[in-house]
Amino acid sequence: RAKEEGRNRFCFYTSNMNAQAVAKLDVEAALSRALERGELLLHYQPKVDGASGRIVGAEALLRWNRNGNGLVPPGHFIPIAEQSCLIQHIGAWVINEACRQIRAWLDAGLPVVRVAVNVAARQFAAGDLDQVVAGALQRHGVDPQWLEIEITEGMLITDPQGATLMLMRIKALGVKLSLDDFGTGFSSLAYLQHFPLDAVKIDQSFTRRIGEEPDGAALVDAIIALAHRLHLRVVAEGVETELQRDYLLQQGCDELQGYHFGRPAPAATLEQHLLEQTRAPLTPPPLTLT
Ligand code: C2E
Ligand code: MG
Ligand code: MG
Ligand code: MG
Question: For a pLDDT cut of 70, what percent of the chain falls above it?
């Protein structure tokens, strides 16, 4: 039905259609087939514990191998999928695929870390996310402790009460909740206190400013202090340099994620890293105190 709506819109605008609109509808049509064709896959990026330097989690990031021609990043197709019900199907696929992967690791006797999946606004607003999550966990016999859901501030703004209920239902399953891209939305600081969250992710735009300008780290400091005061874990995104890493560790940031520790990569790459760290003895974190 959503596809049909899309087609109608397409017809309506045909006369003054620009290249961008054509590209968009092209993507929409191809994306609706991508699921059936098995063209979607998840990459995993490690989240490293600040205290031990060990991988303690991974974020699942969606990729689309369009026509087998290479990977399309989510920024190019998630916004388009969000404009139709496609996002619900894709979103459910992502949650199911993460659970399938966790089950495969458990069955193979491999080390497992908690996997965080992103959800889209429209997927969250649909009202059945808790059921989708519960269904996927049950289907694969996965303990909820292995799953985390990353939401963004924007999802909480329109209907804070409805959002609270949904988050409580997801949390009641035993699944962790984190607030992604924190500081980039327009939510009130009070949101941090009123929603049942476990962690806050410092957006990479803030991490990037560490060491770049005199007060570049001011927001990072403030977010860490606020989150800790509210008993929330803090995860920094987009950690690319040693300087950023050391600064964040000194400030007591709980977990770090970014190219410095590992890029998003196929499940096999994460497996390798987890196996290596299982064999390696515990090493102190590479913290350079100044
Ligand atoms: P996000 O959830 O904030 O994910 C972090 C993004 O930052 C990822 O981009 C990741 O590859 C990138 N990143 C990680 N470390 C670094 C770094 O050190 N430097 C830089 N410059 N970038 C880094 P990606 O994979 O392109 O995903 C972009 C966004 O797409 C995600 O942002 C998330 O909002 C969305 N997304 C990804 N997968 C899904 C999904 O399965 N469902 C939904 N609804 N959205 C998704
Ligand atoms: Mg995320
Ligand atoms: Mg983010
Ligand atoms: Mg984002």
Answer: 90
Site to substitute for ligand 1 among 181, 212, 237, most atoms within 8 A of C-beta: 237
How do residues 104-120 score in pLDDT, each as one tens digit?
999 999 999 999 999 99
Q: In this predicted complex, what is the ipTM?
A: 0.98
Integer Cα distance of 199 and 3 in angstroms: 36
Helices marked H in the chain — which ranges? Answer: 2-12, 19-37, 78-81, 86-107, 121-125, 129-140, 154-157, 160-172, 190-194, 204-207, 218-229, 242-250, 267-279
Q: Whose CA is nearest to atom 17 of ligand 1?
A: 238
